[in-house]
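hey team, just a heads up i'm posting the complex here instead of the shared drive bc the drive is being weird again. everything in one block, sequence lines first with there labels, then the predicted structure for the whole assembly after. its two chains so it's a bit long, scroll down
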Amino acid sequence: MSASVREAGGIERAGTSAETGAAARLLALGRAELTLLGRNKTALTTSLVIPVALAFAMKGAVENMVAGTGLSVGSALLPATLGYVLVFAVYSSLTGSYTARREELVLKRLRTGELRDLEILAGTALPAVLLGLVQCVLLVVLGGVLLGAGPPTAPHLLVAGVLLGMAATVGFAALSSVLAKSAEGAQLAVLPFMMVSLAGSGMVVPLDILPERVASLLELLPLSPAMELIRAGWTGGAGLKETVGQLITGLVWAGLALFAVQRWFRWEPRR
Amino acid sequence: MNTGEKTNGGVGRGGARSAGSGAEVIEVTGLRRSYGADGRRTKGPQGRGDDKGRSGQGSFEAVRGIDFSVERGELFALLGTNGAGKTSTLELLEGLALPTAGQVRILGHDPFRERRKVRPRVGVMLQEGGLPAELTPAETVRMWAGCTSGARPVDEALGSVGLERRRDVRVKQLSGGERRRLDLALALLGRPEVLFLDEPTTGLDTEARHATWELVRELRDSGTTIVLTTHYLEEAEELADRLAILHEGRIAAAGHVADVVAAHPSHISFELPTGFHLGDLPPLGELGVLGHETDGRTVRLRTDDLQRAATGVLVWARDKGVALGDLDVRSASLEEAFLHIAKGLENS
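-- predicted structure starts here --
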């Protein structure tokens, strides 16, 4: 807050204590967004039901797929389910939120206030990210028991994967919303990233069981490093070199997303 | 901490006042704003390279060189027909976009580049929207209060615009006027030094409009500097210390309300009695008439000296023993001035 220190010396500096802090602003906006999410039954259903439903639907297919590969059903399906949380509860739901807020001029109105641009985006994302994290924790605990995956052996890699995944999905949600002109349009705008991530980032077919050359290309997709790290949470990972590579790929995507959002995000509807 | 906020808030304002360069709170010089073919030109400086090629085609200059300043505690009104550039200008003052050319200083700062310094001291009400439909007024104000320095309590803010009984209704169920008032409550939440109101009473019924005027007047009297746009001339006459009439992106007239009005002539119009011609009237120059128009048998005289002209016409009618049909003697008003500007410049 030192930016707001004006002329009148010591007395003036104390006056800045009346100004809001970034945390307080984020919390206020996040709370309002959480209320809105609670009142949006469609978004809530997408966030809470689809990941789990998809996991059940995939169970049989995964059983066939991993037979003879040495992977267990749990350690293949559980990471994929966390991936579904990232795609549906965070990415898809948030693309809808960003689009809706822009179209009802809420983003423009917020920009007239003290919130900084990135705070507006972060505050809007807060409830979706929170809901996603809670789901991830529940899935790890319950899935560990129900699917027999057991507790993660390398939880630090799991956490790193989830966080990288959150950063990428929030960034891409903001970018995808640029393509949509309405909440309905947002459901179309999410398809490319959704399809690429589900098909190519190891959420349906683990990259481990694909041909080497295909896998090494797919590893570069935005959600692949997150998925690889999440999976490594149970398998322990393929070594430090791999892990560092995944972290770097993930951070590069997060950085690119941040840059692209600052460059191309739309705060107002098209005229 | 609470008491600290209050006393220091007061000191802060005093300090800012003495530190400023005179009483000017808002200074606008040579302001221009163009919209590119895709409307994104003004978004930020980084967009310029791309748009260079496109700016020639489909670009539109909404603000074409505007200068004005507003002193502390003054209420300045921007008037104009639809598309005159009122909102485009106001958005530049609010720091929502960068001007294509020219400069804006709010409290001595650039509202776009020095957003952080300006925002805590400014309140804004946009022309429309911006309120999530599924929140209640209380929830909306609570959210904004968390993002506003020195925010007033929620119920006080709602009470000030007469919405205390609607605090827990969803925004989507509020009337258009109630939404305007909620928006105003948000703009006033941080007791701003400078207030921007874009058509604050559009959609309000008469009673609510007068209540809003009362509120705005109180704010001005307590030292708040206010810029408002309106297309209700009555609103500008009621509230404004000074005003500018925008026309096609330029200021066509500006000054104190009385000066703007005085710069425009008064009117007398009547129907010529049958059997009489324009030439039968006393010499118009001697009556102080500046000009005249005829439309069929209707004569319309313009004058700066309404009493002399009217007396001349009426004495002539009495002497001739004729009645002047549809007689209308009208002193200059803001409406006349406004229509004159809108019409006069269109013709040229």
